[in-house]
Amino acid sequence: MTRTITLLGSTGSIGKQTLEVARELGLKVAALTANSSVDLIEAQAREFSPRLAVLYDEDAANELRQRLSDTKTRVMSGMEGLLAAATIDEADTVVTAVVGMIGLRPTLAAIEKKKRIALANKETLVCAGELVMDAADRYGAEIVPVDSEHSAIFQCVQGCRDRGEIKRLILTCSGGPFYGLRFDELAGKTRADALKHPNWSMGAKITIDSATLMNKGLEIIEAMRLYRLPLSQVDAVIHRQSIVHSLIEYRDGALLAQLGTPDMKLPIRYAMTYPYRAQSPAEPLDLLKCPPLTFAEPDDRAFRCLAIAKQCAKAGGTSCAVMNGANEVAVMAFLHDEIGFNDIPALVETALSEVKQVSNPALSDILEADRLARESVRAHIS
Ligand code: NAD
Ligand code: MG
After folding, report:
1. Res 200: pLDDT
2. Rg for the chain, CA atoms, rounded
């Protein structure tokens, strides 16, 4: 069970909800990190008195250092700061709630210090899942997923003595705001349309990923890495109500699922208290008031990002890192109204055709693949 956390990405959607859970459970906070939000991280530092606060952006960190000069909190910046936070002695758990592949090196550093990783940052597992899982095994670090689907599966796998009994994982997918539309109907969709998620309130990047279904593609790869299963044993189904959070089909035909209202604090809380469960202040799901549960097949001809992700999952090597890096840059460009909705899969495919793939990649190959993919997308946008 967690007593003291480092929180990477404290100012984001998962970060803020993690601090709500920390208040609830009385957890201590050893370090907080974010990109550049001085006001919010200052308020968080004043409340939780961490030993370290990090802003990746150097100017913002300088401002924060001045503002916190009357406290005992030390302020750092850059990757050096993120690594110091991830490895700080006092923390037994590192919550990776930072968005993007920037979370990879801090996650690996925390694993080497045998911290429990409460993992929300899926991009890290998509780019370098095999390296991360191998390191976790080698150092004996626990990885407890926070992503709701993977937490559901993690909860359903408790008590399973032989992972060979798992026939397949079934991830549920809300379908996002554009469910039912054809590829050509998606073309004119704007940032404002895409930011209207039907069931979850999340950060901007993952909300766009949910609209393109890239999020489900990333999650399929995340599940393959976490549970060391091939693509043929990980499926996704559309479930518009977001009540069944995911399922395991065992070889005897039993389907185990975790159900609940769409509330990220449940998986966050479980990642903190695992293998125990804590009292929650939230209202539980009322089965008698819940809508009918429906399931359908995802349309990966309209939502090309899902098809691309499956191809990369099959290809392995550096292709997932290229796909992810290209997608991160393309989504940012879409959020800045620089490209259209269907340019996102097009730019990812172009990057995949331009960047040479490496099989059995080392960390340096993955970082290089990520860099080249970003360069490819930027070149095509300008
Ligand atoms: P968000 O955009 O709301 O927050 C991101 C956090 O990362 C912020 O604190 C930001 O300051 C920090 N950050 C961004 N760039 C950084 C950088 N270069 N250096 C240091 N810090 C940086 O994102 P979110 O929705 O909270 O998602 C966080 C992660 O959790 C993502 O990987 C996402 O896929 C995953 N996730 C989120 C949800 C959700 O409900 N929001 C659900 C499942 C998984
Ligand atoms: Mg999810």
Report:
1. 78
2. 20
